[in-house]
């Protein structure tokens, strides 16, 4: 499991590699604090209603039951919320990758032109504008424009991520040597072709990072959909959890089954795309 | 699709020899118009979704608008009222204090976890995966999970152990509920800070530590005199990003305490939105404008305070 023995130690010293045992033990203990809420969520969701009602978090399910999942699924009409969440998330992921990478490419290749340079700083300003500050007029305007629905939320997700994404893409684009595309242009390729055939594929790793962050942010967001989407039947999965708080009441097994189903897609996506999550965060911070 | 124009490399200047030497040559050589088409969607979306609402909202902050229908211009009356509104001032004080405590605790824990995770430990990959995991879980949902733990599990354990202070839910105690908010925010936001610290710590070369060991430096003094100064840039980043995030705290607060008990844990973001839901638009826009200015001042203050002192390793 650990890579330390193969990667950090020179071959002749391999026998001498010593692990820092106290640090390992401390970290394992700390890891329990991460695990407890997740363990309790899974544990409670597998109980029967009769057992869960006592609210004891650490008694193991007896008997093991999947009923809570079925009940949560139909009580909250989860399939509908899932399709809304998937819809918003899909638009946000594709939109963020395409719009930010196009803008970043235009900016980097025309950095000597004032319009493009200033556009970059204009877009970056979004990093300093918290959503609560512009939320109220946005609620009003999306209502007037008929965008008080999942489409409006997806559009807002794209816009609020523009600053960070454009920054990531421009940093990456600056490292791509211009000679690559010059040879393609000499062969008669247009800018459009250069971008889609050469640059966009080269941006792949960065697009993966932007995409996974777009997915996580869009999937997990509560504030924006709860304010913007006016029709409760078009609400997203996280908002659904708050809408059903009263109805869950003391049926802890049902509520936790519902929470677990809401968390699961993000956890699975993270485990599959861990590398891109980690590289994106560290690169974004240092730039 | 478009004519083939070769864009010059960024640094080249030979084409400009005949023109007067301006600092910039916006129109020469010819630009492929498709670049405007590339940039346009981002600018348009940003302007429509952020700039215009910000300006419109700022305008409304000088009116008595309730969000629809007629309104009258009321000058700076909203702003005066905001500063006299105990509820709003209370929310600002609470949010600032909460953000300060949370940013310190989160950074301290994240830094020590990063030290551990960059040491020669077993299960390094697995442990990193585990510690980053909380980042991908929706704030409001994890707040509901913790709400259950704070209101059922913790009191039950405290009763069994005979700890009176914790035998009732801290969420119901207006002097202690903020602690629950700090814990859940820390749980949820340590991962990004942790990853940034890991990125910083791996840039510190091993030789520096070896040299210090030869000079007889203790682990604590190595940490204080070598590691911390070398990664101070990452501390700055985490402090600024963290503080910004906690100032805007909303999702977890709504899920965990809903601003309560009473209004004991109401954040600024909540006061803006709850006020708006209660029918104040112009007034809450004044609140939002004040909030924006305060956020900017804090960001500038943090940058000034740390300017020139930040180091990003070697």
TrEMBL record, chain A:
Q: Give me the segments passing through the membrane.
A: 21-40, 84-108, 120-139, 151-173, 194-216, 252-273
Q: Which domain of life is it from?
A: Bacteria
Q: Which residue stretches, if any, does this entry annotate as coiled coil?
A: none
ABC transmembrane type-1 domain mapped to chain residues:
82-273
Q: Which InterPro entries match?
A: MetI-like, MetI-like_sf
The record's subcellular locations are:
Cell membrane
For this UniProt record, give its keywords in alphabetical order, as a comma-separated list.
Cell membrane, Membrane, Transmembrane, Transmembrane helix, Transport
The membrane topology term of the UniProt record is: Multi-pass membrane protein
An example Gene Ontology biological process: transmembrane transport
Question: Where is it found, in Gene Ontology cellular component terms?
Answer: plasma membrane
Q: Which family does it belong to?
A: Belongs to the binding-protein-dependent transport system permease family.
- Stated name of the protein: ABC transporter permease
Q: What species is this protein from? A: Brachybacterium phenoliresistens
From TrEMBL, chain B:
Q: One GO CC annotation, please?
A: plasma membrane
Q: Which residues form a coiled coil?
A: none
Q: Which GO terms describe its biological process?
A: transmembrane transport
Keyword line: Cell membrane, Membrane, Transmembrane, Transmembrane helix, Transport
Superkingdom assignment: Bacteria
Region (Disordered) residue ranges read: 1-27
Q: Where do transmembrane segments lie in this chain?
A: 34-60, 91-115, 127-146, 176-202, 223-243, 281-301
Any keyword Transmembrane helix? yes
- Domain (ABC transmembrane type-1): give its ranges: 92-302
Q: Does the keyword Cytoplasm apply?
A: no
Signal peptide, first to last residue: none
Q: Which InterPro entries match?
A: ABC_transporter_permease, MetI-like, MetI-like_sf
Q: How does it sit in the membrane?
A: Multi-pass membrane protein
Q: What Pfam families would the database entry show?
A: BPD_transp_1 (PF00528)
Report the PANTHER family cross-referenced here. ABC TRANSPORTER PERMEASE PROTEIN, INNER MEMBRANE ABC TRANSPORTER PERMEASE PROTEIN YCJO
Give the family, as the similarity comment puts it: Belongs to the binding-protein-dependent transport system permease family.
**Would you tell me the protein name for this molecule?**
Sugar ABC transporter permease
